[in-house]
Structures are given as C-alpha cells and as structure tokens.
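Researcher: Let's do a round of design. I'm pasting the structure tokens now; please hold your answer until I've finished.
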C-alpha cells in the first residue's frame, strides 16, 4: 500500500501565508510576492503556476522547480435533479475522492439553527481522507479502508475546484459561490487533524476564500482527544455522528466506540467551547429495526440533556450488501415526535442527491483504490491510530 503521493516536491498549496513568505524570502523575493501567490492559490483557485500571469516568468519557473501544485482533476461530475452535484476528483497520485455540493434556500443544513432562514446557502461537503479507517458497518466509505490522508492543499483544493466549476455553471458569483463548508465527506477529518487544521487556516484566511468559522462544521465519529483539540485550537462548529444510544449497539455500528465510549464522548461534547447561541449537531442515522424505536429516541433525549444540541435524523440511504434498511417514513416522524416532546431540537434531514449516490454514507470511489469491492483489504489494523500523513 502506498501511503504517500509519488511526487517528492512539496505542494505549495499546503503552505499557510507565513510559511509561504519564508519560502519566498529564501528565494530572494519580497513578502508581497507571497501574498500575491497565496491569493492566486486560495482566492482565485489557480490550478497551475502558469495561471499566475502577473508574476515574472522567471519566478514562475523557479516556483515550478521547487514546488508542485497537487491540483485535483475532475474525473466525474454527477448532477442531481434536486440541484446537488457530486464531483469525483483524481489526485496527482491517481487516487479518487469526492465532494458534494448542496444548494439551499432556507433550512439549516449544518443544523445549528444560527442561519437566517432566508439566506441562500451553497454548501460543499468536503472529504478529508481517501477512504476511512473507522469502518462503521452501515457506511459505504467505511467499507473501503483507509488508503491515505489528504494533505491540507488537497482538502482546500476541493473547495477551490468546486468554486471555479460553480462559477462556470452560473451558480453564484466569482470568486466564491460557496457559502458554507461541512467536513462530512469521505473520511474522518479529526483522524487527519494536522492537515485539517492547516486546511481550515487556508480556507478561513482573509486573503483566501475567507469563510467564517460560523459557516464551517467539522463532523466526527467520536475521536475524543481530537474533539478537545478542535475546541482548543479552532473556532469551527462541531457535529458528532452518534447513531446509537447504548454502548453495546454503538460498539457494533461504529467500532470507534470500543475505544471512546458514549460517556467519554458526551463528556467531551459538554466541555466543547461554545460560542453564544451555538449548538453541537448530533447526527443520528435511522436504521430500520436497529436504532429507530421510541425507546431509542427517549434515551437520546435523556443523553443530550444539558448539551446545547440539535439532532439531525438521517434516514438511512441503503447501500446494497451492507444489510441495513431505511426506516419507514412514519417511524422516522414518530421518532422525531418523541424528541420534540422532550424539548430536543431535531429535524429529519431530507435526502439529497439520492439519484446520483451522493447522499450521506454513499461516497465511495468505484474502481480505484477506494472501491468497496476491495473491502477492507487495505485497512489499517488499528482503526483509530493516527494515519500517516500525505505530506
Ligand atoms: N466520518 C465522518 C463524516 C462522514 S459520514 C463522521 O462519521 O462523522 C457523515 C454522516 O453520514 C455520519 O453522521 C454518518 O453516520 C452518516 N452516514 C453514513 N452512512 C450513511 C448512510 N448510508 N445513510 C445515511 N447516513 C449515513
Ligand atoms: Fe468513516 Fe464516517 Fe463512514 Fe464511519 S460514517 S465509516 S467514520 S466516513
């Protein structure tokens, strides 16, 4: 298994502005050049050094000599009738990852309720790893195993490629049609913490796409120490994939629970620094006959008492061969009623992009190293040990 991209040159898109400034100084260049390049990369989403037309040719050549840009290439684009677009990107070392675009008006996709209902939102669901090592038994990505982490430049580049493509498609204005980011694509962002943190620095930078931390949500399956780090080292919002209300069921559905049990996870949520009015989103996939009874809903409400929370109920998107079923709609709404009766803010999330397999947990790249048919062949033996970095 190759854990590193073959190329030896560092990805210039992975460098925060301060580091870029140092590198340019070492090349005998003035600091303003670093900002100019950073803006090309992260505000305008330049795909290559050649695009940086206001840089002297000699500087472009010197950059290309020392660095590369691990720009993602669009391998596939699937457009759903509901406006959702799924992109499959090819990395420079021939891996495949996916991002999903979801336009909204009103509603609340990240589920914390702090968005004006009228605001038009264009959200990108971003991947953080090629595959996933956690291996949740209901999740298509989980069947892939982890091929490698994405580097910070590759994480950010999904956003840049999507912005550029959306401008081409007439969806929103250059340079940044996207308004919100959710790190809920392939992989566990907190399992690739250093790259995630650097990518956030790039994406929230005022000389880059300048996203507000209020509009960025990072999802986790429950890596407790990294939840603490996320709270201490960033200001973005937290979503937790809960999916079960007892350790015995969660152990079966999400192997990460054997390492970090529910009580520890909820404790980390209680301790998560919360800005005024913020809430933690709890994602709960409804699996028919497994976790969708009224008693589960009642336990869920009890568990969340005292945590500023919002529950996103996600009716299961069926993946052939994994052995789980979607709840019937009446069951989903009865589950919701139990939560609401107990004063829990909750919604049943509308399924998006179902006709293009872009819905939650359906992200898997066929034919590539992430092909689910390769089932865990590449998986690391310890599902929660830090994965090797791409850089
Ligand atoms: N790895 C991260 C983010 C990606 S999964 C995490 O686990 O939080 C995003 C969400 O999709 C999770 O809440 C997960 O429980 C849910 N999910 C996975 N497979 C699903 C499926 N087939 N149908 C519906 N939701 C699913
Ligand atoms: Fe990985 Fe999230 Fe899927 Fe679990 S639900 S296997 S953590 S991507």
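Researcher: That's everything. Go ahead.
Model: Designed sequence:
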């Amino acid at each position: 298994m190759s854990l590193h991209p073959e190329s030896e040159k560092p990805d210039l898109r992975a460098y925060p502005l301060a580091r870029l400034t140092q590198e340019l100084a070492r090349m005998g260049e003035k600091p303003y050049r670093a900002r100019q390049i950073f803006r090309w990369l992260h505000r305008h989403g330049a795909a290559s050094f050649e695009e940086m037309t206001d840089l002297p040719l000699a500087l472009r050549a010197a950059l290309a000599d020392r660095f590369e840009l691990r720009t993602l290439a669009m391998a596939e684009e699937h457009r759903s009738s509901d406006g959702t677009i799924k992109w499959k990107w090819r990395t420079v070392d021939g891996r495949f990852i996916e991002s999903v675009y979801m336009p909204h008006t009103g509603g609340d996709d990240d589920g914390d309720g702090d968005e004006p209902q009228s605001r038009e939102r264009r959200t990108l669901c971003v991947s953080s790893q090629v595959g996933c090592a956690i291996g949740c038994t209901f999740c298509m990505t989980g069947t892939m195993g982890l091929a490698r982490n994405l580097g910070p430049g590759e994480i950010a580049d999904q956003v840049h490629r999507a912005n550029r493509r959306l401008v081409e498609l007439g969806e929103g204005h250059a340079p940044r049609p996207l308004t919100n980011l959710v790190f809920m694509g392939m992989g566990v962002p907190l399992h690739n913490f250093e790259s995630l943190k650097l990518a956030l620095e790039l994406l929230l930078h005022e000389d880059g796409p300048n996203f507000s931390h209020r509009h960025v949500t990072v999802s986790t399956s429950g890596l407790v120490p990294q939840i603490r780090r996320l709270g201490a080292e960033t200001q973005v919002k937290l979503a937790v994939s809960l999916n079960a209300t007892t350790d015995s069921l969660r152990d079966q559905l999400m192997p990460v629970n054997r390492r970090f049990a529910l009580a520890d996870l909820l404790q980390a949520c209680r301790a998560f620094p919360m800005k005024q009015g913020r809430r933690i989103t709890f994602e709960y996939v409804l699996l028919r006959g497994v976790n969708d009874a009224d008693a589960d809903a009642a336990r869920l409400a009890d568990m969340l008492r005292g945590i500023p929370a919002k529950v996103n109920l996600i009716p299961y998107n069926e993946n052939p061969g994994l052995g789980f079923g979607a709840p019937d709609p009446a069951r989903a709404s009865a589950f919701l009623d139990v939560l609401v009766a107990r004063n829990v803010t909750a919604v049943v999330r509308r399924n998006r992009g179902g006709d293009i397999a872009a819905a939650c947990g359906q992200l898997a790249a066929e034919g590539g190293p992430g092909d689910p048919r390769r089932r865990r062949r590449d998986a690391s033996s310890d599902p929660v040990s830090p994965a090797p970095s791409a850089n």
